[in-house]
Design a protein that fits this description.
heterodimer, A: alpha+beta, Ubiquitin-like (UB roll), 3 helices, globular, B: about 375 residues, Methylamine Dehydrogenase, Chain H, 4-stranded antiparallel β-sheet
Amino acid sequence: MKVLIPSALRSYTEHGEAEGSGATLGAVLADLDRRYAGIRFRMIDEQDRIRRHIRIFVNGEQVRDLSQPLRAADEVVIVQALSGG
Amino acid sequence: MARKSSKPANRILVTVATRKGAWLYHGDAARKTWRADGPHFLGHVISHLVLDPRDGRTLLAAAKTGHLGPTVFRSTDLGRTWKEAARPPAFAKAADGKEGRSVDHTFWLTPGHAGEAGVWYAGTSPQGLFRSEDGGVTWQPFSPINDDPQYRKWMGTVQDGTPDGPKLHSIIVDPRDAAHLYFAMSGGGVHESMDGGRTWAPILKGLEVVEGFDRTEASFHDPHCVRLCPSNPDRLYQQNHCGIYRLDRPSDTWVRIGKTMPKQIGDIGFPMVVHPRDADTAWVFPMDGTAVWPRTSPQGRPAAYATRNGGKTWQRLDAGLPASQAWWTVKRQAMTADAQDPVGLYFGTTSGELWMSRDEGRRWACMARHLPEIYAVEAAEPRSR
């Protein structure tokens, strides 16, 4: 499925859009990490929590649970919540 | 005092880690001209950037950004190219139902023993100790302390540490024995292992804590920077939240040597620098630790102070530095020495200035201005292929 990548993570993907596959959000992020090594840990910590300044939307709805089921037609948007100066 | 050496001097590389990226300053042997190389990782928070003294080529950078998780970047060609660690420092996954910790940032990097090529240690915020055995490509939790109940109690919560998170720092490897290790925690005290990290014990005797707290409790101790003297590995110096100290092993009692500093300056600060060949010589950079702790140069007049006799007396070293209205601070990793003769000293400021002295602090000159807030400065001797 299509995954939109924020600018802060394009050093991994080189593009603003990437392909990921999987039956859950967690599986899609794991697939992205296989394609772009290291990208998952910048978004998800070692306790499988979405990092504080990362937001993930599926079809426009914010998702906080990596076990969220996904379908192939879904669109995943990863957003960096910028903060500080 | 400084002596002329007959040994030809090597080139110096000064690494500068800042809140917004990293810079490399390549110097000539005379340390008179410098070529700036940077920014590397523009916009990343770089807490530490360290050259491996064992090969003179490998650089490790501890990085994060305001919105992404932490990582370590590695270069094997003095910063021409970088590659991310395959497994950056990360705590063990907690058992179901347990609250696990996550690394906010890697704060401190220490190359391993000269006889253990590829070994590195990392200290993190919140406090964690990690080790790599492959030159920084993969990292594993090291020693039991990350999950030990007693150590977790001493580490406290994120509210118990420094303003941007509690930190494990000052990881020291005894040059005579790779299994003899030290580290320090802000907060949480200074700790020693004699068995390669399997067991640890605090070394707190003689250290003061904030008035009203129990000095036998490691949680209340806030070492800012601990250094071991290369010329006498039985001697350590420490800049602490509550003074400057010296420890001569096998004694386990720190001696507060900062009491001999001028009263109007005090003995509060962040960095501690030792001489590469003279264990009686060390440098500090005091800050204002009065009232609400401004953490600026005392009276707006920055100066390093040197002792040449193990802390019995101190000499103010401010020639070339601003004489007034300079309100910056030098952080704990942001002052260092090279191994030349006479020793070169380097420090970076919270206002983004990089200063150096070619004569052990007698005269200072500004190497760079207008950098981002400087977190760490290291001086090393790179090698050509």
